[in-house]
Each structure stands twice: as structure tokens, then as C-alpha cells.
């Protein structure tokens, strides 16, 4: 039964984030669907966005939006391990966020055993284009920026800018005159 519900949810999200739902009057149907699905008015999605549990449910499987979040185009968010999005989070184009992985040590690959981990994304985080966030990340600190094309495999400190494959700390943001 779960697999059927997952597939229906996946298809509905692909449908409601198709180009048809960018037409001004029709886009309100998309807002209604995402409100009903996630019980939050804080989600703004554009095209081809899927936010779902890509694995089996467990005690951590949940998603929370603490404030406004913007999801641009071609995004897949897996909340199998649980995700909390802070306020004013921006997820740019072509981003993949994973909270589960397939186990392979001392197992047959066909056993399809998985593990998951929770992820907290702080307030004012900007995830740029073409970023992959792996299941090994449990915290992206407040005010962090993840540069385009990065593969994030470790936690990101607050107000830091990371880039690369794998992503490495480059510098801290200067926040003089601005405090959130």
C-alpha cells in the first residue's frame, strides 16, 4: 500500500509543478496542493519539484518548514530521515537532497537495505544550482551558502561559504550592518 501512495504522491507533485501550473490563475491549485500535502503555507515551488520520502518510513520520516522556503526548478528532496527547513531558505535549480543511503557492506546488493539520517537546514541558507547534499550531512548552519556544483558530504558551519566536490569551507560571510 505504501508504494502505491508514494507513487501517487510523486506523480501529483510532478503534475502540479509542471509548466501548466505557472499560469497565474492555475498556480493557486499548486499552492493549495502543497499546503494540503505539507500543512504549511511557507512553501513556494516552481517547476519539476518533488519533495517526498524516497525510502521506507521510519521514526524520523518527517518534514517541517519553520518559515518561507523557495524551491526553484528540477529539485528532488528526500525526507526519509527527516528534514527541518529554517526560515527564508532558498533552494536553486537542479538540487538533490538525500537523507537515506543504500547499505552494501556484508550484504547482497539485492537485499535493498537502507539507513537514514536527519537533516536540519538553518535560517537564511542559500543552496545554489546543481548541488547534491548527501545523507552524511546532518546540519547546514544558519546563513550558509553552498556554491553551485558542490557535493556536500559534511556539515556546514553557520555563515560559511562552501564549494567543490566534495564541498570544502572557503570563507565566512561578512555580515556587517545586517543581522537576521
From TrEMBL:
Originating species: Algibacter amylolyticus
SUPFAM superfamilies registered for this protein in UniProt: Trimeric LpxA-like enzymes
Protein's name in the database: Acyltransferase
GO function terms (MF aspect): O-acyltransferase activity
Top-level lineage group: Bacteria
Stored Gene3D superfamilies: Hexapeptide repeat proteins (2.160.10.10)
Family classification: Belongs to the transferase hexapeptide repeat family.
CC per GO annotation: cytosol
InterPro entries in UniProt: Hexapeptide_acetyltransf, Trimer_LpxA-like_sf
Residues passing through the membrane, by range: 12-29
This protein's UniProt keywords: Acyltransferase, Membrane, Transferase, Transmembrane, Transmembrane helix
Amino acid at each position: 500500500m505504501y508504494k502505491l501512495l508514494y507513487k501517487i504522491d510523486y506523480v501529483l507533485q510532478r503534475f502540479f509543478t509542471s509548466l501548466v501550473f505557472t499560469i497565474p490563475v492555475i498556480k493557486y491549485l499548486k499552492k493549495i496542493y502543497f499546503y494540503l500535502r505539507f500543512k504549511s503555507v511557507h512553501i513556494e515551488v516552481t517547476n519539476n519539484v518533488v519533495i517526498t520520502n524516497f525510502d521506507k518510513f521510519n521514526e524520523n520520516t518527517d518534514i517541517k518548514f519553520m518559515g518561507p522556503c523557495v524551491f526553484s526548478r528540477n529539485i528532488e528532496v528526500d525526507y526519509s530521515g527527516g528534514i527541518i527547513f529554517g526560515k527564508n531558505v532558498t533552494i536553486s535549480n537542479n538540487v538533490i537532497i538525500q537523507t537515506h543511503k543504500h547499505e552494501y557492506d556484508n550484504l547482497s546488493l539485492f537485499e535493498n537495505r537502507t539507513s537514514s539520517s536527519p537533516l536540519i537546514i538553518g535560517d537564511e541558507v542559500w543552496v545554489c544550482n546543481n548541488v547534491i547534499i548527501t545523507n552524511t550531512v546532518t546540519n547546514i548552519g544558519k546563513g550558509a551558502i553552498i556554491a553551485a556544483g558542490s557535493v556536500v558530504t559534511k556539515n556546514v558551519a553557520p555563515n560559511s561559504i562552501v564549494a567543490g566536490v566534495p564541498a570544502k569551507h572557503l570563507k565566512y560571510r561578512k555580515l556587517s550592518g545586517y543581522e537576521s
